[in-house]
From TrEMBL:
Keyword Lyase annotated: yes
Source organism phylogeny: Bacteria, Pseudomonadati, Pseudomonadota, Gammaproteobacteria, Oceanospirillales
UniProt organism field: Chromohalobacter beijerinckii
The DJ-1/PfpI domain, residue ranges: 7-165
Protein name: DJ-1/PfpI family protein
InterPro entries (UniProt xref): Class_I_gatase-like, DJ-1/PfpI, INH-QAR
Superkingdom assignment: Bacteria
Keyword set, alphabetical order: Lyase
CDD domains, alphabetized: GATase1_PfpI_2
Length: 228
């Protein structure tokens, strides 16, 4: 690998900001890396009331060593953007490691990059992965060859540390972890459906039901047009 490790994070309207700002924080803290956040046309991207500007133009980036695709409620809309999806396919063909966070794996799936491969996703969207020929995996960070995917939102930091260790060794990853004091001790053990109280799980599912049904139909439509 070249002395500089080029990491590209493509973002889009409706991205979950922590899906990419978490990994970005860690990737940008280690030596030898150049981290580029890009959008179609370099246009500003709004995410939960935050606006990200001065973005690179995704269309003109020729190659990368690591492609890290974040998720978000806009992920399926992004997957239906031919210009965005073409850039994902093109950069994936050049990358040494293909990675995603949360529902970013659905974008990789829509790009035809997950057929027959194990992948992680946010728990509420994981059942959409088979539509794209992927094998759902409930792991927090899942590796299948050069494909490394993370589960929901906060798994992006674990994914970043996994990728850093792969590229630069365990000690470099551990140094980044220590520098940023990544030592999570959540006040509740409610971050997964199998550990959350049943009443909380039911409440969250009820609140998501209509949206999930609509998103599943959208994913089915996208899957009918998968690249050959």
């Amino acid at each position: 690998m070249a002395s500089t490790i080029h990491i590209v994070i493509p973002i889009y309207p409706g991205v979950t900001q922590l899906d990419f700002t978490g990994p970005h924080q860690f990737f940008s803290r280690v030596p030898q890396t150049e981290v580029v956040v890009a959008s179609v046309g370099g246009l500003p991207v709004e995410a939960q009331g935050l606006t990200f500007t001065n973005l690179a133009d995704l269309d003109v980036i020729e190659a990368c060593d690591v492609l890290c695709v974040p998720g978000g409620l806009g992920c399926l809309d992004a997957a239906e953007d031919a210009r965005f999806l073409h850039a994902i396919q093109r950069l994936a063909s050049t990358s040494r490691y293909l990675t995603s966070v949360c529902t970013g794996s659905l974008i990789l799936g829509a790009a035809g990059l997950l057929r027959g491969r194990r992948a992680a996703c946010h728990w509420a969207w994981r059942d959409m992965l088979p539509l794209f020929g992927a094998i759902p995996d409930a792991g927090r960070v899942v590796r299948d060859g050069n494909l490394i995917t993370g589960g929901g939102v906060t798994a992006g930091i674990d994914l970043a540390l996994t990728v850093i260790a792969e590229l630069l060794g365990d000690e470099t990853a551990q140094a980044a972890q220590l520098t940023l004091e990544y030592a999570p001790e959540p006040p509740f053990d409610a971050g997964r459906p199998d550990t959350a109280p049943a009443s909380v799980h039911a409440h969250v599912l009820d609140g998501m039901a209509d949206m999930q049904a609509s998103r599943y139909r959208q994913a089915e439509r996208i899957a009918t047009h998968l690249p050959a």
